[in-house]
Design brief:
7 helices; alpha+beta; Nucleotidyltransferase, domain 5; five-stranded mixed beta sheet; single chain
């Protein structure tokens, strides 16, 4: 790609960009599949011919399906879902006839290591957990639950497997849902963070979560256990804010590579007053980070 005049993005090394006469052509790679997008049809055709001369490839036309992700276009925007992937996952493990669940987990349910319980099949557990991780691409609502069950892949028990089944049952009732991307007339970047203090009953570490919007569209989200034990809820929330800031700076650099540098401050929201006060003391612009 570099030989052909494309520039590799520093924000995402699978993304290659080419600008010509004010137009942009982008190619992004996932294993041995790729997507070409842009407003320069002539350059896109040249790229296709060049790649075809280097190795065997097949043009599948307009993007409708990309490894497990379905794409539909309408006047309202672009809709991403994984309906077929959900159904295939349920069929594989014989859950297609199971009753759908309305919720992901029991309220306030905390999972730990249960040495006195019957061990679950590790290979099956890890395979299902991997599928759930991929389903998180269009289901941000399962991100927290998946991050919880992923902590026990080394030694799953019956209780952990039951939660995995519960998540899959929930996905059966929400299989048609997904993510909508619409043109809202702006590219404002917003971030939201949260954390639960000492949420893990195993090691007392907290779990942080964040999600970000670009132009009014949800683009990234994550739920992950923090690396150290926080001594207070304020510390846990503050560390969560730091992770959110890192994500927003990454988004800023990616937008800059694409030629859409944010023109205004990026706003980060947090619901912990103590953490916000600490941030303001350290920097007067913490919650409105400077644009790149």
């Amino acid at each position: 790609m570099k030989t052909f005049g494309y520039k590799q993005s520093n924000s995402d090394h699978t993304l290659f960009l080419n600008r010509r006469k004010g137009k942009l052509t982008a190619l992004i790679i996932y294993v041995d599949d790729m997507i070409v997008i842009g407003d320069d049809q002539e350059e896109a055709k040249k790229l296709e011919d060049y790649l075809s001369s280097e190795f065997k490839m097949k043009d599948l036309g307009g993007l409708k399906y990309f490894p497990g992700i379905e794409l539909a276009r309408s006047e309202e925007g672009i809709f991403l879902s994984q309906r077929k992937y959900v159904l295939d996952s349920l069929t594989e493990i014989g859950m297609l006839a199971w009753k759908p669940a309305d919720t992901l987990m029991e309220q306030n349910r905390k999972l730990g290591e249960y040495l006195n319980q019957v061990p679950a099949n590790k290979e099956t557990y890890q395979r299902l957990d991997g599928r759930l991780m991929y389903l998180s691409c269009t289901h941000p609502d399962i991100a927290y639950a998946v991050s919880v069950v992923s902590q026990f892949m080394h030694s799953p028990s019956e209780a952990h497997m039951n939660v995995v089944y519960r998540i899959l049952s929930y996905l059966k009732s929400t299989r048609g849902k997904g993510i909508m991307f619409s043109n809202n007339g702006h590219l404002e970047v917003l971030g939201y963070t949260d954390a639960d203090w000492a949420g893990s009953i195993t090691d007392r570490r907290s779990i942080s979560g964040y999600f970000t919007f670009v132009g009014g569209n949800l683009v990234t989200w994550r739920s992950k256990k923090q690396k150290i034990v926080a001594r207070s809820s304020a510390e846990a929330e503050y560390r969560g804010m730091a992770q959110g800031i890192c994500e927003m700076l990454w988004l800023c650099n990616l937008l800059k590579d694409l030629g859409f540098k944010p023109k205004q401050a990026m706003n980060l929201s947090c619901d912990n007053k103590a953490s916000i006060d600490i941030a303001h003391v350290q920097s007067s612009s913490t919650l409105q980070t400077q644009t790149c």
